[in-house]
Amino acid sequence: MSSYYEASARERLQNLLDPGSFQEFLPPSARAQSPHLLQLETPAAFDDGVIVGTATLGGAKVLAAAQEGGFMGGAVGEVHGAKIVGLLERALDERPAAVLLLVESGGVRLHEANAGLIAVSEIMRAVLALRSAGVPVFVLDGGQFGCFGGMGIVARLCDAVIISEEGRLGLSGPEVIETTCGVEEFDSRDRALVWRTVGGKHRYLLGEAKEIVADDIAAFRAAALALLDAKPDLSLDALAAEHEALGRRIERFGSAADATDIWRAMGLENPEKIPVLEADDFRAATAGRRL
Amino acid sequence: MEKLTYEFQGGTFSRPKNEAKLVGVVGSGNLEVLIEPADLQGRCVVEVLTAARGFGAIWQAVIADFFARYPLADARVSINDVGATPAVVSLRLDQAAEDFLGDAQ
Amino acid sequence: MRDWSQQQRNRQARLDRAAAHTSGKVVAAQDIGALLEAVIEPGDRVCLEGNNQKQADFLAKALAALDPARAHDLHMVQSVLALPEHIDVFERGVASKLDFSFSGPQAGRLAKLVSANRIAVGAIHTYLELFGRYFIDLTPRVSLVCAQAADRDGNLFTGPNTEDTPVIVEATAFKSGIVIAQVNEIVDKLPRVDIPGGWVDFVVQSPKPHYIEPLFTRDPAQISEIQVLMAMMAIKGIYAPYEVQSLNHGIGFDTAAIELILPTYADSLGLKGKICGNWALNPHPALIPAIEAGFVESVHSFGSELGMEAYIRARPDVFFTGPDGSMRSNRAMCQAAGHYACDMFIGSTLQVDLYGNSSTATLGRIAGFGGAPNMGSDARGRRHASTAWLKAGREAREGRMAKGRIMPRGQKLVVQMVETFREHMAPAFVEKLDAWELAETANMDLPPVMIYGEDVTHILTEEGIANLLLCRNDEEREQAIRGVAGYTPVGLARDKRLVENLRDRGVIQRPEDLGVDKRLATRDLLAARSMKDLVRASGGLYDPPKRFRNW
């Protein structure tokens, strides 16, 4: 088993895609670096923290981007964002079987916040354009920094999220919530609380992540392969149905104070045991119950 | 930030056709090392951009020892450092050199 | 005629004063202040229980809140200053003198009060030394201890974290002192009796359970590949050749890395059954994979560790447990065991000088010693032999004395394991320890040295192992230390020729000399790479504290 959580962005791409198939656009030697960070006396990475390129997955052509959480928490800066936008726009021309976004990001890079915010909005627009052109976009979320802020929104605009239990998905990160709303509202150091609120299992149960897998690059690969054949329904009816479902969700669970309450209300047995289950057992224990 | 440059002559490991290789991550206590083939008249040039000022003497010693282990020729080694210790720097340099040289080493 | 029972009569007077505030031995929480005022007299020597794990926190608060007009000039004797209240008693004028062992979290405040002459420090001790003095010249008049539960007769159940309670109560109760225990609950029947009720005068149920710090939990996710390399060197270069069977590990990620590669690397070297069988060690979660792999025969502990209760209960062949199934720890006993019955201590430090003296002292903080010096010193009173002890002794003596005139004797292995640079590029090797300056500014009798150079047998860094047993004079010793000090100023100032000479003689061994393949030094070698892996290895029995979870 090769841990997705532990791997670097490069290692994830190498082990996720067909061996030897990945061709990088703007590799480190191209030195497409952030011009802002160096001016601010902050070390900059040769690839600006994101790797983009083309590859095959099970023989099918895909384009892929992987954010490196180890560099500034995977935060989106100007060049970083432009590389992702460029990849998505290239997909519009090349029509690959899918685009894979290996997201690991705390949001927008504060050092170049305006450029980062614009980049995130451009990524959103490009994702929607691509989906409407019939090219599916899948998010893989299992890194140490989770998927938050602008990239959290991007993830929910995509066709599907594949998440591991260790993965996290949300808008504001736990520390931001604590700082803004107080430790009584959300204790970001209570890691059990953090994970049962924004972690992979809860996101899967709420239907925000389509698949949950073990922390294993091969498991992410298998889940991504399986999704290649799925044809998303982008009709107006489907959209209306989803909105209705979201409305029912807030009605049903809006007053719940803790994820455990929601799990209990879903009819899951021993909700307090949910966090310790392995991915396979968890899927079996929750089959037919999740949204 | 501090920029340090070191040059070495007399290297014997020349790999003009090899691909550039990158190891490591620009994160706290870590660094990235990029090794590329370059036409440098046989020299090996090491460029370090480091967040920690005032450690030039240590870098000099670490890089010189690295060149003694891997006498690269016509190669450019570029480093982005965020306060990695010499142990981590040496480890990443060795990993990058082994990646770059490949099995033919 | 001299009155030979003054202490007993004084004790009775205190109990008589206390009678107004109690019914039997049980005291209500809201009456604790009145009880303390009744039994404590000005100038008393008071022992407040608290180590780096469990804390008599409710009693500490009550003591700090006493009226200094009635309770003053107390002489505090205690293992650890951990809570703010431990310093508050001095700031508020309740206490004025202090004898202690360790002050980690309060080290900065302590230094300030000492330099302002608000605290007179008698001495800073090691644990065994302080416990020893409880029976000689620092016997407490009043002891404030903590336990998990009590019954109405004052019998105490300490639970797994027995820690310092037995030694404190014994010294106090049998010298006419007063023992007051805070407990989490008062029950009709205790699971087992750790302290007999006859030794306890009062029990009070604290409004909140006493605090326990999960001090020995190390998240494997934070172990670096350099630490894995050093762990490999430790096993191949020290554990294997000396066949180290009985040992103590210091607290830290360096030694956690060793624990986590026993089932992988050490096993691949065929060392199972040959090393690491018997431990004086807290129940480190990082040891779970090695226990499950069959490396570990026994573990005796100073204290317990939060979250390990169910796992320990399920492994009574390994851990010391009571008839009720839960663990019994005992700091004094385990310290004695670690000192006399272990072949090796290995631990980390902050600074090492050219003689091998090591210290964790930093300026502006009086941190003290704890138990490391008891573990990390040769037991001069040891007489039983073992392979490791004899080999270390032989290496130290051969060459120093003429053959045939050597009196055979063993020596404990004391290993200091340090990366040459710590965080923020602070060198671990220095010409002169900060302890010297601290001793001067804080008016100490001597520099606070954690492990004296004369006790250190090996220094292990990422650059290599220096075997100080094989050094024949001070110059060799200095160069052996410089020779593993990496790129620190101390290391860069080495005599290269002498260092190579020491390497030829095996005094210094590099990873390649040991046959350690650096390419294997990745986190993949760790038997557990995350807290979740530790839970898995325990079969779901280990229940880590919330702050260590990512599920």
What is the strand and helix layout of this fold?
The complex is a heterotrimer of chains A (291), B (105) and C (551).
Chain A: H1 9-16, E1 23-25, H2 35-39, E2 50-57, E3 60-67, H3 78-94, E4 98-102, H4 113-132, E5 137-141, H5 149-157, E6 160-164, H6 174-181, H7 191-198, H8 200-205, E7 211-213, H9 217-227, H10 236-253, H11 259-265, H12 279-286
Parallel strand pairs in A: 3-4, 4-5, 5-6, 6-7
Antiparallel strand pairs in A: 1-2, 2-3
Chain B: E1 2-8, E2 13-14, E3 21-24, E4 31-37, E5 44-50, H1 56-69, E6 72-73, E7 75-81, H2 86-101
Parallel strand pairs in B: 2-6, 5-7
Antiparallel strand pairs in B: 1-5, 3-4, 4-7
Helix pairs in contact in B: 1-2
Chain C: H1 6-18, E1 26-27, H2 32-39, E2 45-48, H3 57-64, E3 74-80, H4 84-91, E4 95-102, H5 107-115, E5 120-124, H6 127-134, E6 142-150, E7 156-157, H7 165-173, E8 178-186, E9 202-205, H8 225-242, E10 246-249, H9 253-268, E11 278-280, H10 288-292, E12 298-300, H11 309-313, H12 331-340, E13 344-347, E14 351-352, E15 358-359, H13 372-375, H14 387-397, E16 413-417, H15 434-441, E17 458-460, E18 465-467, H16 474-482, H17 489-492, H18 496-504, E19 508-509, H19 511-514, H20 531-537
Parallel strand pairs in C: 1-9, 2-3, 2-6, 3-4, 4-5, 6-8, 8-9, 10-11, 10-13, 11-12, 13-16, 16-17
Antiparallel strand pairs in C: 6-7, 14-15, 17-18, 18-19
Helix pairs in contact in C: 1-2, 3-4, 8-9
Number of strands of chain C: 19
| Count of separate DSSP helical elements of chain C | 20
Side by side, the strands of the main sheet of chain B go 1-5-7-4-3
Q: How many strands, which pairing sense, and closed or not: the largest β-sheet of chain B?
A: 5 strands, mixed
Residue share in helices of chain B?
25-40%
**Low-confidence parts of chain B, pLDDT < 50 over ≥5 residues?**
none
What portion of the residues of chain C fall into strands of 2 or more residues?
A: 5-15%
The dominant shape of chain B is globular
Instruction: Give the strand tally of chain B.
Output: 7
Straight-line distance between termini of chain C: 72 Å
Instruction: Return the CATH topology of chain B.
Output: Ribosomal Protein S5, domain 2
Pair with the most extensive interface?
A-B, 17 and 17 residues
